[in-house]
Amino acid sequence: MQSRRTCVSSKLRKTRIVMRDRKLASHVPATRLFSRSQLAVMLKRYGMVYVKPDTGSLGIGVMRVEKTAGAYRYQAGTRICVLRTFAELYDSIRRQAGSRTYLVQKGIHVLRHMGRPFDFRIMIQKGPSGNWKPTGAAGRVAHPRKAVTNGSQGGSIYPVDALIVPLASKKASSRLLKEMYRMAKLTADRFNQTYPAMNELGLDIAVDRRLKPWLLEVNTRPDPCPFTKLPDKTMINTIVAYGKAYGRRYCLTCSKSRKGASPKRLI
């Protein structure tokens, strides 16, 4: 059944939409409703997970949780808690979550720049002809004291090549970008079947140490702020032009995210 909605807030609902596509499903980390039993099972299976609100944005409320030798550890913002037992861990996280619905997601050991985790924001938009087109790709490096990469949390924004080329090669970077764009197109096609009124999506894609991309989250009202921090303004100009065509206006005053160092200093 099709809907005229242009925004979906539930991360779990969006994950389930993506999981309907067989090609995308292998790129989606296991995601479950947060509960005591699911936290225990997934920590045992994966060693590290992320616990995050089912609704919300900007990286607010996201916790990185891991099982270490003889203890448990989780990070929320810049605060790090070490607890001796699983019961203490669960009770502490439950207090942090309050009455909100939370999810637990398999943790991906992502690539790092200067010891800081990074991922990518991919923008895809619907053109006047009704076809979806990827219009932007930007790397997001986490704040030195945080586990989340969001620019609103003090993350730094880089061109894709500036982060991938030093770790792999120019060819690998090009191949990875093509794969992320392919994932964005498949995601847009899948969402379009249920929500044909949607005009834009922002994908958060992480890359593991084997250079496999993982689709962490789909944003149905994406913030274009990361693209304002790139040296080349082509992407943000394209995003704004596409948005204008379907009636979207963006606030481009982006004070919390930072512009990453010059690529010349990274390679």
TrEMBL record:
Gene3D superfamilies documented for this protein: ATP-grasp fold, B domain (3.30.470.20)
Domain of life: Bacteria
Listed name of the protein: YheC/YheD family protein
Source organism (scientific name): Paenibacillus nasutitermitis
Lineage: Bacteria, Bacillati, Bacillota, Bacilli, Bacillales
